[in-house]
Model the fold of this input.
Amino acid sequence: LFFNTPHMKTVALDAATGEEIWIFDPAEYNEGQVFRSRSRGVVYWEDESGNNQRIFNAVRDRVYAIDALTGKLIEPFGQDSESSFIDLRKDLPVPPELADIEITTQGAVYKNYLIIPGRQGEGNTSTPGDIRAYNALTGEFEWIFNTIPLEGQYGYDTWEFEENMHYGAAKPWGGITIDEGRGWVFAATGSAAGEFIYGGAREGE
Done:
């Protein structure tokens, strides 16, 4: 039985006896910083041969891959060969240093994809709430779906974007559902943020 604590530690128990098997503490890999958050579970994945069993735990803006049998951090894992985690501030249409994202509902797996939703704010400088997929074995970035379309994407011409206006959010903070038969991701999003009080600049489809 795998679950998270309020301090985002991941715990494995023997489901028959309740005996503790291991605890993974993300603070050990983040300079001792303890992060307290809401967490709606963890994600399990194994490859097609039933090997490489792992637990994915998203802690604020990082995703750690944990060996499901030992509780040890899997390294390397992430966007490059020296990473210890997926950095969710990257791979967005904003500079990483400006991205503010927290995962409260963990992602989902489809085949070898780890698909990540997000919880971003809805203020004047909110980070886009785009949906991203990463390789479940390596952590490498695979694809992105922009919930607020970029130029050249479907729906862009319906937005009537205004100059000097920030557009963000439109995030699936409640999680995603996957139709495995068709390979479709279903995601319900919150509102787009185009200035917090006045909503007239976020009328696009």
About this structure: The CA atoms of residues 128 and 168 lie 4 Å apart.
